[in-house]
Amino acid sequence: MKLRVLTSTMRVQMKQSFARPMYRFCLLANPILNTIVLYGMYRASGESNFMTYVILGAGLMGLWGCICFSSAGDINRERYSGTLALIFATPAGFQSIVLGKILGNTVLSLLTLVISLTAGVLLFGITPVLEDPVYFLIALAALILSFVVISSVIACILTLSRKTELYMNCIEIPLELLCGFVFPVSLLPSGVRAVSYALSPTYAVELLRMSILGVTDRTLFFEKLAILMGLTVLYALFSILLYRRIDCRVRIAATLEVA
Known about the structure:
By secondary structure, the chain is mostly helical. The chain has helices at 2-19, 21-42, 55-81, 84-89, 94-109, 111-124, 133-158, 164-170, 172-178, 190-196, 200-213, 218-253. The protein has one domain (2-253). Helices cover 77% and strands 0% of the residues.
């Protein structure tokens, strides 16, 4: 039953997301613009492999932007459509429906990685390099799982908020900077780095870069992967706990409507 809910919600969500002009801009135009900006930043940096910072960075920025403005914004859209309370009370389960929406957005948003790669090759003649495809797929799967869990936490938190648009605009760029999407986390101040390494996407980005350049230390790769999976599990447990608290509050106060 839950699997059917997830798959059907994913299909509907992908169609609805692509129908929105803002989402299409984030999905199609944003990766190209990010690639152009990052190429201008790095072309005189002396960095030998543009793949890890220009193409990967632009793709990840587009991916997170799509997830941020869709998964977080979906709660707000459902509220103003008058359907959030209905979804919350449905027998299929609020968590299953929200998870299906997040999965649909995430799967569709993976197109940003392909678009940034294509833009880098066509506009700047960047030669794609991928030394360890198997490790790259492992890191990519871990990144997707991490983003899905983080989106679930954000969706739970914003379920009770009336300031969804404000918050989803505030979380996009800070996470991109803290997690090293466009430059190494090591360049950040030591105090800020402590926050960076508490965020699971930081490890996912490092794993992706390691697999692109070639994994020379497999032990280090799997250590970072283990940390990433540990943080993801903690986020998932927090999401479940948060949902239960919200469920109790909503049933008592009935505060899901616009007013």
